[in-house]
């Protein structure tokens, strides 16, 4: 009985450590998800981030240095930069297409799985704590009854 109570206490403490590790993972995934764009712009088969305009501008400038202003790729990138500066998504006109960001989707799925695992582990920990407390109460009740019997 005493060993059972000790094992339950140890298991609940281990579950607590696992909860803290999973909480850190959830926090990290949440941070990653928040910094990852939900969509991406694909122009001419090349994916550009829909959110950070600076990367798009740099890509446009690099392409412009290697090609003439009349090159279709340079024109397409120029249009994309103009649309991003105007606050648009770049989905109308030109050959740009807005697509789901698979990285965002993958991180989102990992986060949902981690949150689900975290909730299950917290529930397990609560159950272990409850069982450990009951086992400890039984041990104390046994000690009390034994002490009473020895006193008689």
Q: Work out the count of structural domains.
A: 2
Helix content: over 70%
Q: Uncertain regions: pLDDT < 50 for 5+ in a row?
A: 88-93
Continuous helix count: 4
**Using only CA atoms, what is the Rg?**
30 Å
- % residues in beta strands: 5-15%
What structural class do the secondary elements suggest? mainly alpha
- Give the termini distance in whole angstroms: 24 Å
Characterise the protein shown here.
With 152 residues, the chain is mainly alpha-helical. The chain folds into two domains: 2-16 and 105-151; 39-100, no CATH class. It is built from four helices and three strands, in the order H-E-E-H-H-E-H. The chain has a three-stranded antiparallel β-sheet with strand order 2-1-3. Strand 1 and strand 2 (46-49) form a beta hairpin. Helix 1 packs antiparallel against helix 4. The protein is rod-shaped, with a radius of gyration of 30 Å.
Sum this structure up briefly.
This protein has about 150 residues and is mainly alpha-helical.
Question: Layout of SSEs?
Answer:
Layout: H1 2-34, E1 39-43, E2 46-49, H2 53-66, H3 72-85, E3 96-100, H4 102-151
Antiparallel strand pairs: 1-2, 1-3
Give me some keywords for this one.
3 strands, three-stranded antiparallel beta sheet, single chain, 73% helix, mainly alpha, 2 domains, rod-shaped, 9% strand, 152 residues, 4 helices
């Amino acid at each position: 009985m005493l060993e059972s109570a000790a094992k339950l206490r140890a298991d609940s403490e281990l579950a607590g450590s696992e909860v803290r590790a999973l909480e850190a993972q959830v926090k990290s995934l949440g941070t990653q998800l928040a910094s990852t764009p939900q969509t991406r712009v694909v122009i001419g088969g090349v994916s550009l981030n829909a959110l950070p305009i600076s990367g798009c501008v740099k890509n446009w400038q690099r392409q412009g240095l290697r090609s003439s202003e009349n090159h279709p790729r340079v024109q397409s990138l120029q249009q994309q930069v103009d649309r991003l500066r105007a606050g648009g998504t770049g989905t109308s006109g030109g050959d740009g297409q807005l697509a789901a960001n698979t990285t965002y989707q993958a991180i989102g799925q990992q986060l949902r799985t981690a949150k689900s695992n975290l909730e299950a582990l917290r529930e397990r920990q609560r159950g272990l704590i409850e069982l450990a407390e009951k086992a400890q109460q039984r041990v104390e009740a046994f000690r009390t009854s034994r002490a009473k019997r020895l006193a008689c």
